[in-house]
Design goal:
This protein is mainly α and 131 residues long. It has one domain. The chain has two helices and no strands. Helix content is 88%, strand content 0%.
Length: 131
Amino acid sequence: MRKGWLWVSVIGLIVLFVVLFVVLYLLGGSDQSALERIMNIAVIFLALSAVLVVLLMGAILGIIVWFALRIKDGAIPIFEQVTETITRIRGTSEFIGEEAVKPIISFSSRVAGVRALVKTVTAKPKKKKKS
């Protein structure tokens, strides 16, 4: 059903274009050659297409502005929630990192203390060099 409407629209535009061309050609003066009439019609169509392009660009700009305003109203609260979540995750990861490392650090320090004690107890006395 949609394709039928598309074809009707395309055919309608072609018929409108041809009718407009014929009417503009017949409105040309008798002192003009056929090429001059066609050139004038081409200029008219170019001007109409420029106006149409400007109108379409204005409509597109309006839609983009409307869409941006709609997104802004919904996006700013989402960005605030994401920022809060990232801050919480950062704090949690720092806390867990510190808590996970504390037992390793305390174990390493005890091992270092035991090594120092063993080294001190088993160390041979140094002989003094005579100078």
